[in-house]
Amino acid sequence: MVSSHTKDLSVIAPVNGVVQEQVSKLAIKLHVSISTLFLCLILPAFAVFVAFIYKTNLGIYKENAAALITNHNTQMTDKLLALLDPIGDSLLTIAKQVRDDPRLFDTDNVNDTLLLHLENNPNLVSIFVASDKGNFRQVQRMREGMIIANRVPSPDAVFNFWSVDRSGMPADASKTGKPVESVFKFYKTRDAAPIETFAVPNNYDPRGRPFYKSLLSTVEKIPQEKRNRFLLLDEPYVSGSTSQATMTVSTPIFKDNVFKGMVGESFELNSIAKFLKSIQISKNSESYIIDVDGNIVVSTAADNGYTIIKLGLKKQNVRESSGKAVKQAYDRYLSTQDRAFEFKNELTGETYLARFTAFPNNFNKNWEVLTLAPVSDFLVGLNAINSRLIVYGGSTCIFLVLLTFILSRAISRPIETLTEEIRDLLEFNRPRKVIKSRILEITILYNTVNKLRNTLKAFTSYVPRDLVNDLLKNGNDIELGGESRYLTIFFTDLQGFSSISEVTPSRELVRLVSEYLSLVTYAVREESGTVDKFIGDSVMAFWGAPLLDQNHAYHACRAAVKSQRRMVELNRKLVEEGLPPLTVRIGIHSDAVLVGNIGSAERMSYTVMGDGVNVAARLEGINKEFATSICISHATYKEAGERLWTRPIDVITVKGRKGEIPIYEVVAICGDEPEISATENDVQLCKLTREAFTLYTAAKYKEAGDLYKKIIETYDDGLSNIMMERCRERMAT
Q1: Against a cut of 0.70, is the pTM above it?
Q2: Angle at the Cα of 267 (from 262 to 268), degrees rounded to 5?
Q3: Tens of pLDDT along 256-274?
């Protein structure tokens, strides 16, 4: 079907019964449009090629720079581990010796072991052991100008033994009135006698020092099985003897899971800073080691990233470095957790490459190694060439972008609209827009979609819409077969239709029946039911297939009540036109039946089969026997009875079935929907009928008959009239 709004297309007279479409001479084939677009892209090929080369080279340079920074970080971590790992191994070795022989805490015998480890590791400045009794033994490497206990030792001294012995003293030495002495012995060689010895009564107790407390509080949180190999890298501090920033690595000593003391080894932080500066990857690169709080442990800055003051060591924090690239890099890392990225310095506009590398947590320090390098350090030779390439290629690229945009929109707009039309078609929505295109293929496709829309619309008049929708979505072939499913079946019929057809002209009869069938069909569809077929003046419908419906019985009863209520308005119009009113009878039953594509390969129908269908048809006919309008089975009543206004009819037998089944009449639907809700008369009629039927089933026929008679006098009820006669018959027998 061609839209009346399309100027380029028109419909001409049928040829051999087929409507021909006239195509505008201005229509252009799709491949011509695409060829034109490609031609426009080829013309600026050189500029695109230049831009590609520029981008590729820039990417390669940046990748190489990023790889260089990554390797640099890896090298730094490896070198730092090469510094710290021997320290850790040395600590664990000494700790094992002391653990095996705890007497080493209390004698100078441990000094030779400490000195041996100090001599084997040139990066160390001191090694010490401290016990839980307050004993302390340290071997310290000497240097010119060192101050020990407020004294300047002999310049010939190479190492110093410092000992504090609390053996045999109470835990609180102050109670003795005599302070504990620190004894210092200075040596030039290992085997020679000390060149100087002095004692200082300073009451030094390692248990009160930060390095001891820090290790003790930390190791208490460590599982017992890991304590013997636990290493802690303490916070930097300023050494009192060297006035240098120093760090201590320590390990605990446990005996029978009891903390007995510790071993520690110290090195100067300046050695790490010198190493970082010696391996800078570019002129303006920066390297940092940062802790979890953003404090700089050490860096390549002139002050090594920290400040030494009289009271100790003051750390610098990268987040306080306002305007500096390191602060921006760290903020980006915290917000995105990206470890390798490129960013622009907000203050200078310089583009930087940043790489964060996690320092191995062997020493229980969550450090990050950060390297920053400006991109310009790596692109000095490339920038001049690239600048010229950008100037010459930029203008051509701009033209190409504009031309590509215009042509692509000319093609994509109708295709996008057509895609929406196809989607609406599959969802049975109305068409939105009329597509106008000079591309022949799009025009033909649009016309085909319109024809398909009309075909599907006609198809849904013969086949359930839900089934068609399911076929469209799944794309499966229609095959013979079915499945057993618990459904609700719905039958309607017109009372006295044969008599009406004899006295009504054919055209009027068709209109009459069509209006009635339309009314019932709309009610069924409103309640998500499937109209199976029309059998003369009867409508067969069901709920629960092809789409599952957990409330199939309830929806069927709602459709029945809607149909009856709307028939009242239809009959009013028919009477005004001089036509006979129509009386509809409805039967509803819920049962397990076979549902699916039934028939032959040439012609099939989506329908239901089974004994439940026969019962539903029988219930429709039973309305005539009991003067009711909507008759439901006990199975349907069990599914939805609590949401319905019903009244019992009787217990009947159905041909071909064993036993009796109770049946009910649906009067209204519970709730406040005006169209299907119950009136006060409906409620009272249901209650009185239930009372009468209870007496009837209890064989109290006289009382039941009297109550049915009362209902007849009040409501002129046909069902009560029949049941009253049955009560009289039972009384007579």
Answers
A1: no
A2: 145
A3: 888 999 999 988 888 778 8
